[in-house]
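Structure (tokenized):
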């Protein structure tokens, strides 16, 4: 491990003043975050993999979009089993992505333009190649208890069928337990076998994590996005989940998520790192969190987190009781009522994060919009309008501002994501038709979001001078950043204007939310109210024309039309994917 106490090698442009940026209390409420998945953003050295110098070369592009914060997916030392979410050294940068000096340069370049940097914090698990885990493999080691080691199930031989300590399935297929031949015991890995879960019950683990976080803050970062943070507290009894006929391993969410000590750990972390005191941005990824839990976690009085990523709205197009691969149609009322419930549930107490996509989700325009040539641009704009006009902090995932679309992979050999590859093997092994599995992957694979950012219409969309690690989407010839920046009617400029509205108008940040026409199958309408100002958003979220029912919405005569997809139009008829933002008062 590199020694974090030592000052970094004198890295070119970094001085203490540029590395540390002033942070106002609550600054993140009016901020827009841009997520960068470094592997796919911009490659500076032609090895086909995006890197930190590549990001630094694009900071002016980010500044012109107007975003306030960059959230950087993991760039730490890693064997890359899960593209960096398997970390072997929290205190160093993977050579694939650059060096600590490169990161310092990026922080300085962002800070110089008034933007902040939020790092990914992946501490539910480490890589199996992390020094902590290597040490822990020895049963006599003082670090044995840093991970979840358990003997084979009572009465069974280690390594034999069903000998795993519990019947839990890993998120990435198969058992969540791996036998370590060396000691004859199993270790828990909720994700891949190269991602052993840390045991947060052990106070030494927690102190080591907090110390590491402190060093990053001292280095100049402005906050943390916390990977699956609600899995750090598990039901410590580690019991079997109810069996499912025909399945050796079953999802066991109740056993390992949202455990009894979650909020205690978050409070302890907040105090130990000074998360609130130093006005750092904190967002916890919390699959399976309820509104009630999120309200407590984001209530400033509890000193836990600023906001969480909920998964409810990205689970509504899966069959109830099934997995993400069991595709089901999504009706607009279900989606908008879900978002409204979160708005109302956290109103006046906590804070929402707002997102349509990220590196784990399909592309928003392909999933919730219409990515056909006819409707792609307007549906990408309208989805953004709806998202950005809810209350909370919006997250833009790289390429979303361009209306980038899903991949068109037709063969399993094209996929790179461990979740997709493992799912295909397991599902076809269980007898599912390959065509059905490929249809699920086409709609849901995480690789959809991971194709390289399309910068211009030159070779490989100018993502790399080499061969990209994942092929560029063929539509880059017309769908790219250079074309979008040059076209005032593009999705890019629509996002830019939405971001500017947030910075200009307090009603966008603080206005009280209300959903109108909750049962309408096509129209998403909402208001935000602050004092005597009312923001009215009307959006046709369908590929057919829609009519606003007479008298259903506030009168907009005399209102200002702040932004729309079809400039000038104000009638009750809405074109497919037309949306408008009015300011009344
Ligand atoms: O993507 C998913 C949908 O099936 C989830 O299982 C996903 O793995 C989960 O949301 C947790 O995500 C985070 O932790 C994972 C990592 O693979 C993801 O990229 C990360 O965002 C393990 O670190
Ligand atoms: Ca590279």
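Design, position by position:
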């Amino acid at each position: 491990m590199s020694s974090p106490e030592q000052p970094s090698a004198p890295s070119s442009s970094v001085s203490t003043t540029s590395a540390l940026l002033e942070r106002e209390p609550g600054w993140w409420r009016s901020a827009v975050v841009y997520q960068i998945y470094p592997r796919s953003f911009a490659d500076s050295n032609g090895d086909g993999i995006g890197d930190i110098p590549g990001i630094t070369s694009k900071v002016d592009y980010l500044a012109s979009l107007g975003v306030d914060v960059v959230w950087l997916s993991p760039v730490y030392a890693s064997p890359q089993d899960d593209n960096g979410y398997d970390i072997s050294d929290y205190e160093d940068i993977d050579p694939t992505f650059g060096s600590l000096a490169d990161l310092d340069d990026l922080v300085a370049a962002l800070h110089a333009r008034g933007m902040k940097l939020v790092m990914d914090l992946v501490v539910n698990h480490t890589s199996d190649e992390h020094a902590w885990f290597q040490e822990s493999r020895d049963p006599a080691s003082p670090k044995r208890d840093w991970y979840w080691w358990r003997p084979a199930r009572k009465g069974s031989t280690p390594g034999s069928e069903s000998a795993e300590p519990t019947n839990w399935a890993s998120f990435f297929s198969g058992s969540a337990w791996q036998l370590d031949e060396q000691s004859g015991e199993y270790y828990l890995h909720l994700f891949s076998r190269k991602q052993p879960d840390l045991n947060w019950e052990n106070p030494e683990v927690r102190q080591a994590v907090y110390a590491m976080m402190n060093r990053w803050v001292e280095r100049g970062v402005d906050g943390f996005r916390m990977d699956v943070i609600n899995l750090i507290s598990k039901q410590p009894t580690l019991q079997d989940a109810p069996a499912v006929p025909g399945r050796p391993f079953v999802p066991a969410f109740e056993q390992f998520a949202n455990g009894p000590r979650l909020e205690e750990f978050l409070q302890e972390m907040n105090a130990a790192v000074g998360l609130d005191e130093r006005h750092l941005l904190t967002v916890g990824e919390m699959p399976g969190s309820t509104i009630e839990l999120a309200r407590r976690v984001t209530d400033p009085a509890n000193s836990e987190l600023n906001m969480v990523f909920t998964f409810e709205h990205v689970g509504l197009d899966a069959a109830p009781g099934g997995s993400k691969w069991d595709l089901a149609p999504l009706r607009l009322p279900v989606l908008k009522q879900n978002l409204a419930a979160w708005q109302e549930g956290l109103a006046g107490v906590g804070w929402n994060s707002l997102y349509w996509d990220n590196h784990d989700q399909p592309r928003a325009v392909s999933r919730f919009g219409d990515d056909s040539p006819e409707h792609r641009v307007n549906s990408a704009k309208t989805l953004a309008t709806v998202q950005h006009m809810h209350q909370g902090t919006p997250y833009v995932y790289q390429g979303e501002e361009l209306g980038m679309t899903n991949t068109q992979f037709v063969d399993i050999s094209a996929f790179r994501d461990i979740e997709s590859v493992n799912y295909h093997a397991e599902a076809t092994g269980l007898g599912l038709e390959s065509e059905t599995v490929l249809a699920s992957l086409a709609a849901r694979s995480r690789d959809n979001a991971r194709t390289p950012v399309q910068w211009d219409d030159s070779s490989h969309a100018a993502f790399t001078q080499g061969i990209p690690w994942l092929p560029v989407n063929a539509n880059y010839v017309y769908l790219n950043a250079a074309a979008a920046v040059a076209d005032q009617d593009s999705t890019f400029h629509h996002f830019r204007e939405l971001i500017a509205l947030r910075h200009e108008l307090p009603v966008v940040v603080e206005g009280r939310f209300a959903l109108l026409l909750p049962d309408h199958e096509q129209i998403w309408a909402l208001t935000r109210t602050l004092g005597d100002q009312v923001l009215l958003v009307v959006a046709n979220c369908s590929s057919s024309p829609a009519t606003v029912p007479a008298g259903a919405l506030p009168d907009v005569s005399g209102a200002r039309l702040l932004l729309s997809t079809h400039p000038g139009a104000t009638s009750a008829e809405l074109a497919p994917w037309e949306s408008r933002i009015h300011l009344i008062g």
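Reviewer-requested clarification: Residues 203-219 form the longest helix (17 residues). Residues 1-18 have pLDDT under 50 and may be disordered.
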